[in-house]
Q: What sequence folds into this?
């Protein structure tokens, strides 16, 4: 049975989190706090390498914030728990990859969750849109994440008019990594996860750390940060047994034996 609207499964090193709150997989404060706990555990569990986030059914990935809960008195700026809304939108120190498997409409906060993930696989019928301005609100993370992801004109169109981006167009703009038939959605997300699992753990985590730390920097400053010694995961990766194992395994024509240290 779902706990606070979530179905959580561990398949070896892959964590699968399914939003299961009929009819629209909307997220109230209790569900958001539970998601925060789930993704905090994911961050701290060395056995887990990659997470997949999806929604139950085929209509909604997530409708975002539960407006019925809001109408019943839940505060707009209430306690959404660790990691911010949905446990991910403010999870700034998470160096493990999260894959969004978008099974339907990603609306408002649901779209923000997809934007907070590292890879996005979408079903052919999936849609992405923000409708906050039509209910007197703004999509907090959407207003600054979307213009970093899409051309500004497209992003502002979506933010100001509620324009819906269907999966094929989202792919063309680079918002989505792959568009697949609905029946192959989770399978494709799992294939991505298994590919990542085969890589060296610290190298994967260092990629996220570096990408996050250098996102707004010019290239010269990126090199300065890289050589500053302040990127802890990157420094651990350089000094790791895995950094020696990879070249050795290549030279010996065998699969590497990663230790994550």
A:
């Amino acid at each position: 049975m779902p706990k606070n609207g979530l179905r959580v499964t561990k398949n070896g090193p892959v964590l699968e989190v399914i939003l299961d709150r009929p009819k629209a997989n909307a997220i109230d404060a209790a569900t958001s706090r539970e998601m925060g706990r789930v993704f905090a555990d994911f961050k701290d569990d060395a056995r887990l390498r990659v997470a997949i986030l999806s929604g139950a059914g085929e209509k909604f990935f997530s409708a975002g914030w539960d407006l019925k809960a809001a109408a019943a008195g839940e505060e707009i700026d209430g306690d959404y728990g660790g990691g911010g809304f949905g446990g991910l939108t403010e999870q700034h120190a998470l160096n493990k990859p999260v894959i969004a498997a978008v099974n339907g409409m990603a609306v408002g906060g649901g779209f923000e969750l997809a934007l907070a993930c590292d890879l996005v696989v979408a079903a052919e019928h999936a849609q992405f849109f923000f409708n906050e301005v039509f209910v007197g609100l703004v999509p907090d993370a959407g207003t600054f994440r979307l213009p970093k992801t899409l051309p500004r004109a497209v992003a502002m169109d979506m933010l100001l008019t509620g324009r819906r981006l269907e999966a094929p167009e989202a792919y063309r703009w680079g918002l989505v990594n792959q568009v697949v038939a609905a029946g192959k959605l989770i399978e494709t997300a799992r294939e991505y996860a298994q590919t990542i699992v085969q890589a060296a753990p610290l190298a994967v985590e260092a990629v996220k750390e570096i990408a996050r730390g250098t996102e707004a920097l010019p290239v010269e400053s990126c090199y300065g940060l890289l050589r500053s010694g302040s990127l802890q995961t990157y420094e651990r990766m350089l000094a790791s047994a895995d950094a020696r194992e990879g070249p050795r395994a290549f030279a010996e024509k065998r699969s590497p034996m990663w230790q994550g240290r």
Remarks:
- The chain is about 40% helix and 15% strand.
